[in-house]
Automatic annotation (TrEMBL):
The lineage of its organism: Bacteria, Pseudomonadati, Pseudomonadota, Alphaproteobacteria, Hyphomicrobiales. It comes from Paradevosia shaoguanensis. InterPro entries: ATPase_AAA_core, P-loop_NTPase, RecF-like. Residues 172-344 form the ATPase AAA-type core domain. This is AAA family ATPase. GO terms for biological process: DNA synthesis involved in DNA repair; double-strand break repair. GO terms for molecular function: ATP binding; ATP hydrolysis activity.
Amino acid sequence: MSVTDIHIAGYRSIHKIRFPVEKLSVMAGGNGVGKTNLYRSLELLHAAALGTLSEEIAREGGLPSLMWAGGRKVTDEPRLVLEATLDGVLRDNSDPDGFSPTYRIEIGFPDKISTAAFDEEAQVKLETITIRSRSRNVVLMERRGPSVWARDADGERVLADDSLLASETALSRLRGGYPEIDAVRYALSEWRFYHAFRTDAGSPLRRPALPVTSPMLHSDGSNLAAVFATLRFIRGETRDLDAAVADAFPGARIEMEMPGRGAEFAVRFPELPNRPFAASELSDGTLHFLALMGALLAYRLPPFIALNEPETSLHPDLLPALARAIAKAAMRSQVWVVTHSRELTDALAQETGILPRQVVRKEGGTWLEGLSALGIFSED
């Protein structure tokens, strides 16, 4: 269920851009070029599937704060457009490789006559899921206003709902009887985003985790100890995790016991062998590195992992080990990395042969170096 193409328009520094997405995408560039805006756009697609899009936009300051700030024609209605094409989501006997659905959502300000949204609340203007079949586009779902149409099991176009609020997404609300829509929602909702793990004294990383089998790391890392315990006591092996820790901190090892009322772990270092150090005692950089290992080497990985500036608080000596863990994760999942670090991009290139995409400014908007207006990179 990989992402093949992304289209974004009207979001902060992004005027309009469409580009292909690879198994491992590395986005690099200077401050202020819009790397984080690309990352954040994907988070908003994820929120559309979860049904939290309006809340996420409100947390950013509302639509006035996140709309494209550059020039536009007087006749252009301000719209935020998010679109993703997914590969291998829909399958049937006629095409064993599966169809590639495209989910698109357009967001704008409420109409003056509308009473279904607050004055500056994000309002869904258009929402569609289409697939390419026999050289033509087939619409599986179309939402305009409060009404959403979808194709039933017989392929007939039916009214699926006519009572959606302006702030609700059809993708999150339409459930049951529409397996194709369910598949797209599931694919997008399973994405995971990891950005700036807290490592202060009150960080959830430093506290015991609930003793619950945890095949995947939460976005805030609060179940890190349970993720490690799941590898040790449920899978029964921690080979990749042990190797990554020894790679970063030669001679060090993670120690843990079967969870009781909580899951905990500690690290024993060779230079201080007399006792292990609990998570509450570890340095910020060490704890951050371990959280990244929990995200990248967990029992089960999400279909899409996005890391925003994972090098934060890490010593440069740890970046080759991080690059090797990212490369290993990219064999099991699709990984997106946003980074400032030349050391990390060099290490990733050495491990995978993949060079970073340089994020630049072009005509005032965020762009990717080498990308044509047709959405194709020059080397392709």
